[in-house]
Amino acid sequence: MANVSESQHPMARICKEWLAKIEIAKKAKWDVFGQYAEESSRFYDGPHDWMWAMEYATGSRGFLSKEGSHLPMFRMTVNKPFEAVALFGPALMHKYPNVLVTPSIPPIIPPEGLGIDVNDQTSAQQYQMYLQSEDLSKNQRTTHAALAQHYLNWLQIETNKKISARRAITEAIVKGLGLFFTEMHQPVGSQIRYPRSRFVSCDSVQKDPDAEYAEDVTWYAMECIHPINRVAAAYGLPEEELRGHMQSFESQGTSRGKKDAMAHRQPGSTTTYDLLRYWKLFSKNGFGHRLKSVVKTTKKSDFDFDQFGDFCFLAIAKDIPYPLNVHSSALAEDFESLLERVSWPIPFWTDEGAGNGWPFSELHFYEKMNCVWPLSLIKTAIGEIRFVNWCMSFLADKTAANAKTYVAVAKAAGKDLQEQLLNSTGPYTVLEISDLLGKNIADVVSFLQAPNFSIDIWKMVSEVMQLIDKRTGLTELIYGMTSVQLRSAAESQIKSQNVSIRPDDMAERTEDFYSQSALKEMEAAVWSCTGQDVAGVLGNVGAMIFEQQMQTVDFESVVRDYKYRIESGSARKPNKANRQSALTEFGQVALPVIQQFALAGMTGPWNAYMSEIAKAMDFDASPFLVQEQQMPGQDQGEAQAAEADEERKEEEHQSKMQMEQDKMDMAEEKHKLGLKMMGEKAAMAKKAAAAKPKARKSA
Length: 699
What we know:
The chain is α+β, with helices and mostly antiparallel strands. It has 22 helices and eleven strands. Among the domains are: 1-29 and 218-351, no CATH class; 576-624, no CATH class. It has helices at residues 12-45, 54-57, 80-92, 111-114, 121-158, 161-174, 228-235, 239-243, 249-252, 255-262, 335-342, 382-402, 414-422, 441-444, 456-472, 489-499, 501-528, 531-550, 555-559, 576-599, 604-617, 634-698, and strands spanning 99-103, 178-185, 194-200, 205-207, 219-227, 275-283, 312-316, 360-363, 406-409, 445-448, 564-568. The strands form four sheets. Strands 4-5-6-7 form a four-stranded antiparallel beta sheet. Strands 3-2-8 form a three-stranded antiparallel beta sheet. Strands 1-11 form a two-stranded antiparallel ribbon. Strand 2 (178-185) and strand 3 (194-200) form a beta hairpin. It starts with 11 loop residues before the first helix and ends with a helix.
């Protein structure tokens, strides 16, 4: 395929418009989110002295004058972001989330609600048919929910969700936003496809800069860097068509381009594969022809973009004058094929409830007012963190200066004493003083003492550190420490409840994040998987039900939870100390009663309590479980009771059948009587009709 110029492809202008919009979105994101995310990342995992680099220290966020000033010898970094990740991270992601899928069962409407008279046989039969239909629907929904739950829980482990979740949680704590991108995945060399939610950095995504709230966003773009051969295979392009566009000369001059060059993204200098940087763009407002023009280019294309509708997908790269998914050869395809190319791979836009209808699931802990980008946990204390780092560095210098010992030597002592002092290596030095000096030793050598160090500055730093801890939630109780002794159990309980408010809220948001991604994975499976893809997990019968029932219903029934509801259980680390305390407190009240039940042969409650307390204390409860003992003659008594129960049920069944038969006989007699009365009425009417002509003749 030959290279296509801008004037030859009808979508060239669209590509330029989208790339310009992405650049505008980058700037808007940097102003409200990006600069703080980058600064927090440097505190978390940057050089220990990065704050003292002149580019930062003399910049708008720095603390030195433009001309520069005295720099400390010791340049420290108080790493609060790392402490937040180390404390909150393991608490939020301890194990794989357990996905729970519950069937959505509509309520049963009573006969009165349908206006049915239960005494009427026909109406009663109709209501019975309604109940049977509802039971069938309930069983089907329960089966679908069980299959979905089994498949989704398999996905969590197969796609290594724990690794992606830890990355997303870390980025949400440090930068303010963690992301999953849900897509179909086919492992190399495998014929099986399945959905996965993988971590993508918030640095790689851009949103509609005009939106103030998440529900107002009209487009979402994700930056990708992949080997050219895979990009070409994915979109049906020859590699030669892309190889000349790996990176433009303009982008090579930018700081990002220089970094790319160092990371062997330049043609002819790569050490592994040739890579291409491009954008996957999801739009909810058309293909791009409705964008407000911001670039000077050729006249608008006459191509009919409205035929693609509102929900469009594009893959665009700089200096390539066409979308990768709609190259020149694709324009010759029929409309159905072309529409498939520009449509979202999975129509997540149908479900505006889960992540506002995007392929992305977002995790953030604090919202920013009138902004689609969230607020970072660290950003709220960034000013105080800068101050503490500045003070701590100069305090370290001050400490080093005070550790020096200054010795004053009389000039008359000459080089003799000075050389001995300078050459001393041990903690004690013997000085020989010439008798010719004839002076007191204090007149020859004296030690100078620096003024006492004021602790006021340290108090200020300590106060600011406490402000940072309160703002970020890294209080002493989170660390398991307390500066004062707790006076009562009630005080301890109150403090424990208050300190868990923030972690509990963060855990709830994280569970919602897992639930969003699980729902998107199920939507992707229903839309894209085949019976062969799920047969290994669900079995042949389950795969048949998945293909013939779950995939044949309207797709909206999946995204609207009409059939079943998908929720993720907690993945946070369980608080075993609280559980032990709760079980112990419960046991003080319940154990005496439970023991009486166990002595009477009802060992279920005792075994359940022992199992729970052992689980909370991490030991095996089996030696403490009591086997249920049967009293002499209990087997015979139970058999007799079971036999009597069966006889009672049989009698009730026979009685019910007899009543039904009596009702049917009565209904039949009533029907016959009605027919007889109708016949008599018809005969009387016929006789009356025959008598009318005779009456007219006589008249």
